[in-house]
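Practice problem: predict the structure.
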Amino acid sequence: MRRRFAIATICAAWMCWSALWKPAATVNAQLSEVEQEGYASPLEVLLSPDGARLYVLCQDTAQVRVLEAATGQVLQTIPVGRQPRGFSFSPDGRRLFVANSWDDTVTVIDTQSGQVKATWAAGFEPSSVAEDRAEKTLFVADRIGNNVTVLDAATGAEKLTLEAGRGASYLAMAADGSRLYVTHVYPNPTPHRTPPKSEITVIDPGRAQVVDRLLLPNIAGVFHVAISRDGKLGVAAELHPKNLVPLAHVEHGWAFVDTLTVFGADVGRSVEVPLDELDRYYAYSFGVAIAPDKSRIYVTHGGSDCVTVIDTKKMLAYIREHPEPFAEDLSASANYVVGRIAVGKNPRGAALSRDGAKFYVANRLDDTISVIDTRANRVTQTIKLAGPEKVSALRRGEQTFYKAYSFQGQFGCSNCHIDSTFDGLQWDLEPDGFGRDIVDNRLIEDLRGTEPFKWNGGNPTLVKECGIRTEMYFWRSQNYDDRTLTDLVLYIRSLPSRPNRWRAANGVLTPAQERGRAVFYRTIDKLGQPIPQSNQCGYCHSGPKGTSQKSFDVGTGKPTDNSGLLDTPQLMSLALTAPYLHDGSAKSLEEIWTVYNPHDRHGRTNDLTKDELNDLVEYLRTR
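Answer:
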């Protein structure tokens, strides 16, 4: 039996590998075909104040589609910027603000005419937007900037920026306008190999000041947050990773806990509440909403294609009656979860009707909106958005990427690669031995031409990385047939690099960046001594993507490493991916040389001044 399984696996991997080694023109043609098909990819939904219109934020077509809420008929289609990620109404409902994450802009739409009235510059990768009750100030959460940009709501002029958590992404305004809550998708910096920490940043909109930071220990990804109408209950959807123990514990306590943090006067403190149950897991909790009377809480699960319904009264009673912590108690959710409702693929944003009778869910990866009758807890309508009927290979690969395939459906690729990026965490993958070869999670954008994979260079292709290795050590079963694996690899290979905010659009470097480039490519040190080729930055990090695709021992190994030889990582989007080095031990780019290069084996840097190191960092941020 094992022999047949092994032969089948090897044959499947070979067939997939053969299929993927196609000329670049063929791959590009496939991608162009998909781009022309125009999948909507609904990410967020909003109901107009009167409940008559449903606004759908379509990420891949860069549109806002306005539907008649009762029938799903399209009334208007409004173009916006690249990769829109969040939107919200002004308090009077007359304007709609859209955060365009790849354009670094906010689109302002007149909801009466459906016309774009203005496009304003925002921070780095705006992901969510909210206006204050006085309609004087606009707040924009910037994922790369790690802050909230404050704009004049009349002119779009920037007033100031407020420091938020790393990867600031989602905003929720209290009904009375007294507080604005901000979540972030990446953990805040912590000492190496310590539990992750996140926060909910609390802003006073009237004063445009941060007034509190609700600390979320052990949390490394926080998505939507909702506030009850009376302002006494807040709920945030989040990920609780278990990255400090070997991943062998998938079967004995899972790798992620799917939880909520509840806070506010109704609770008296911040409490982490689990959603998973024994033998069933609810992966990638994302969207959250609270019923008008607070009787129910609704949570979308992007990896499990369902919505969880929580009895609020029972949940609060459980919190009062049980000592903390109980976030890892698989028996807890049975005390307050009263429904699980199947919806479409990769449900993300959601919205409740004003009376709480209907719950609208955006199913990003099958271009539908599920309409749930909250009294019956069932889907009563599925609105199909206009678009291609054909499901392409690339689309199938994306669906696989966001599906929870692991042991009992605990997690999927997107748990560690949030929105197809990274998670800012370090993991102990047990094939190398328990407590051995701790690895930092790398960004997966623009991977073509960066082989091999893994920090030890052990996987020559994405077929092996995403196929046999993933199934053996993460999924614990053979989940992928030939076509599924081929589609998945095609999707990952298609991921582009996002715009580089540290590089001018015309490619011209600043004086500091030019000086840093000279340091990067120098062959002689400041003492006039030649630098060996193998110790020159530009030798290991050669080529257009900053990798020679070879392994070197640069002296950064740790006692827990099995070998000092490490794959040379690519340099694209380097500014985004702290911490650094193979195990994430360097908190910043500066620490790579000031702390972890005492013997000049990782480039000749000990002769550089602080200003020269700063110039080198400035250049690396442009890669």
